[in-house]
């Protein structure tokens, strides 16, 4: 099984100002969880995280309005409050969806602490939006009366801002790992985790701040060794030049490209930028992992590779001269050798390193062999399609071992990729597909297995 972290934003639970009540938020969560249970049925070990920007803002505002009657709620306690309340929503919705399908699986929400440094420069520049969207006039008035810092948020209105220090570790990572190994669906790092500092003697001290849930989710994903970090958001893909005549939607980019776009100011500071930064950091720190940002309602398509913006490891990075394996070859795989699938351990055993996702030139057809593995065959009659593949760097000494462990009827041949490059690839023999189902219309093995509900 492979591990996925799915990180929902707090704004994904509050669709607009007319749908911000607790029952309405629960309805939104309930509509969100079916694709998550789909993932569990397909074999994913699942951790769900969530934002809390609007919800923390609501708690703080209630506290301010009632300050003559009850003591105010510190920000770290407000984060803890939202972990309990939103965690309860996800646990209840997930349990109910599992019950509807006749499935039995433990679901647990973990109160999670994110360790931050007290000298983090974020404390001098509060930028994390919390609370509901306001008009500029209303936000300015509240800033004057309440001592807030405020900022305009991605053209949607004005919001209160608080400090958002960067987490250095998650205190509960080991416990969360034990839970998912035991088969539990875990809700964790809610609202980015409760921000705390650690004294030299190990004492935990609460900090008045809000940790970005995307960065915290990426950190947890790295610490767990997750294979996938998915951040559902309000748009189907990430765009550069968003809202301008030059707007361009991105399909697959490398970590280096993502960081270049961030440096160029292509993404909103309080909205898309931390998502892209979190995914890029996770992918850079976790070899072979993938991060995806896309629309919450398109999770099935994201998993099939037909929606969302995927961030993958840099292909231009090469080892130092004294580390270069001059005998390594590039190998395109199109089926069960892919990451997380049943023969992927063969790649690890051969010392292979994931390079990137790619597509072939449209000169191939694809079949399923008894729904056990695919067979990709080159055609010359103009009926070919592009097939989704993964490109791996394989030591020459390990290539034979991979081939020996492949199912009968598959062999290694040359494959032409969509960018014009040629690599070695796993090719099927024509006799192998006689009487088998052709699945070329799916464009790849992952998309087919996702559509058919195969694990």
TrEMBL record:
<feature type="domain" description="Allophanate hydrolase C-terminal">
    <location>
        <begin position="330"/>
        <end position="449"/>
    </location>
</feature>
<dbReference type="InterPro" id="IPR001048">
    <property type="entry name" value="Asp/Glu/Uridylate_kinase"/>
</dbReference>
<dbReference type="GO" id="GO:0008804">
    <property type="term" value="F:carbamate kinase activity"/>
</dbReference>
<dbReference type="Pfam" id="PF21986">
    <property type="entry name" value="AH_C"/>
</dbReference>
<dbReference type="InterPro" id="IPR036393">
    <property type="entry name" value="AceGlu_kinase-like_sf"/>
</dbReference>
<keyword id="KW-0418">Kinase</keyword>
<dbReference type="Pfam" id="PF00696">
    <property type="entry name" value="AA_kinase"/>
</dbReference>
<dbReference type="InterPro" id="IPR003964">
    <property type="entry name" value="Carb_kinase"/>
</dbReference>
<keyword id="KW-0808">Transferase</keyword>
<feature type="domain" description="Aspartate/glutamate/uridylate kinase">
    <location>
        <begin position="3"/>
        <end position="283"/>
    </location>
</feature>
<comment type="similarity">
    <text>Belongs to the carbamate kinase family.</text>
</comment>
<dbReference type="InterPro" id="IPR053844">
    <property type="entry name" value="AH_C"/>
</dbReference>
<protein>
    <submittedName>
        <fullName>Carbamate kinase</fullName>
        <ecNumber>2.7.2.2</ecNumber>
    </submittedName>
</protein>
């Amino acid at each position: 099984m492979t591990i996925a972290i799915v990180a929902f934003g707090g704004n994904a639970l509050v669709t607009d100002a007319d749908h911000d009540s607790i029952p309405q938020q629960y309805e939104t969560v309930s509509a969100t969880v079916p694709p998550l249970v789909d993932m569990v049925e397909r074999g994913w070990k699942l951790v769900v995280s969530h934002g809390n920007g609007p919800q923390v803002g609501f708690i703080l505002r209630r506290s301010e309005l009632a300050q003559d009657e009850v003591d105010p709620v510190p920000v770290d306690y407000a984060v803890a409050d939202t972990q309990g309340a939103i965690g309860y929503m996800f646990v209840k919705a997930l349990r109910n969806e599992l019950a509807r399908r006749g499935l039995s699986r433990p679901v647990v929400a973990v109160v999670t602490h994110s360790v931050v440094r007290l000298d983090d420069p974020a404390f001098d520049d509060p930028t994390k939006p919390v609370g509901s969207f306001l008009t500029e006039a209303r936000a300015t008035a509240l800033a004057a009366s309440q001592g807030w810092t405020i900022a305009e948020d991605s053209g949607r209105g004005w919001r209160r801002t608080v400090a958002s220090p960067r987490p250095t570790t998650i205190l509960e990572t080991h416990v969360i790992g034990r839970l998912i190994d035991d088969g539990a669906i875990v809700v964790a790092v809610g609202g980015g985790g409760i921000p705390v500092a650690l004294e030299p003697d190990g004492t935990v001290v609460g900090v008045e701040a809000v940790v970005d849930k995307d960065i915290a989710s990426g950190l947890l994903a790295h610490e767990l060794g997750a294979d996938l970090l998915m951040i559902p958001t309000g748009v189907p893909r990430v765009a550069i030049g968003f809202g301008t005549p030059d707007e361009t939607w991105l399909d697959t980019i490398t970590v280096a490209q993502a960081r270049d776009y961030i440096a160029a100011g292509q993404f909103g500071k309080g909205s898309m930028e931390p998502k892209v930064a979190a995914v890029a950091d996770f992918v850079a720190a976790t070899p072979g992992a993938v991060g995806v940002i896309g629309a919450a309602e398109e999770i099935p398509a994201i998993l099939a590779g037909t929606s969302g913006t995927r961030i993958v490891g840099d292909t231009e990075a090469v080892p130092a001269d004294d580390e270069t394996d001059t005998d390594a070859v590039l190998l395109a795989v199109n089926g069960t050798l892919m990451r997380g699938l049943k023969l992927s351990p063969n790649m690890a055993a051969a010392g292979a390193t994931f390079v990137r996702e790619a597509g072939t030139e449209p000169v191939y057809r694809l079949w399923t062999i008894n729904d056990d593995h695919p067979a990709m065959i080159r055609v010359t009659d103009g009926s070919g399609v592009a097939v989704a593949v993964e490109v791996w760097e394989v030591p020459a000494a390990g290539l034979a071992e991979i081939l020996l462990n492949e199912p009968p009827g598959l062999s290694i041949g040359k494959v032409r990729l969509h960018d014009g490059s040629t690599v070695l690839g796993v090719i099927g023999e024509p006799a192998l597909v006689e009487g088998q189902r052709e699945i070329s219309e799916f464009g790849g093995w992952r998309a087919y297995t996702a559509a058919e509900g195969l694990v």
